[in-house]
Amino acid sequence: MHEMSLMAEIIRIVSDDAKVNGIRKVSRISVIVGDLSNVLPDALELAFFYFQKQGLVILDETTELELISEAAKARCRKCLLEFTPDYRVALCQKCGLPHCELVSGETFRVESYEGSDEV
Ligand SMILES: [Zn+2]
Question: How many domains in the chain?
């Protein structure tokens, strides 16, 4: 499951930034997971649970993971209809054309994190 390496990457990004900002303990990590990002929230939580048990300095079992879902949205370039696509390649629900651009739903990134300089 690639969520394991994604979670490792998230923790690395947060750890690096926390170090720069003098934060020694992270209490919450917020991550945006788009519906079309190919990331499974359940698997991501499982991976986080695994890393919580690893005795990392930066986070432990009190650290929260907040997953913010981002709905998929597409817009037809012809009639400008906005709709919820099932896949990355979407057919406009009005004119049936495949010339739609994805407006949202592909995001996968750390939105923010909270922590303190006390361990
Ligand atoms: Zn259309």
Answer: 1
d(CA 91, ligand 1 centre) in Å: 8
Q: How far is the CA of 80 from the centre of ligand 1 (A)?
A: 6
Domain containing residue 65: CATH number:
3.30.2320.50
Q: pLDDT of 9-46, one tens digit each?
A: 999 999 999 999 999 999 999 999 999 999 999 999 99
Task: Determine, yes or no, domain membership for 94.
Answer: yes
pLDDT in tens, 55-104: 888 899 999 999 999 999 999 999 999 999 987 778 998 999 888 999 99
Distance 70 CA to ligand 1 centre (A): 22
Phi, psi of 113 (to 5 degrees): -150, 160
The string of DSSP codes covering 63-118 is -EEEEEEE--EEEETTT--EE--SSSS---TTT--S-EEEEES--EEEEEEEEES-
Ligand 1 geometric centre to CA of 20 (Å): 48
Residues spanned by the domain of 33: 3-16+24-114
Q: How far is the CA of 82 from the centre of ligand 1 (A)?
A: 9
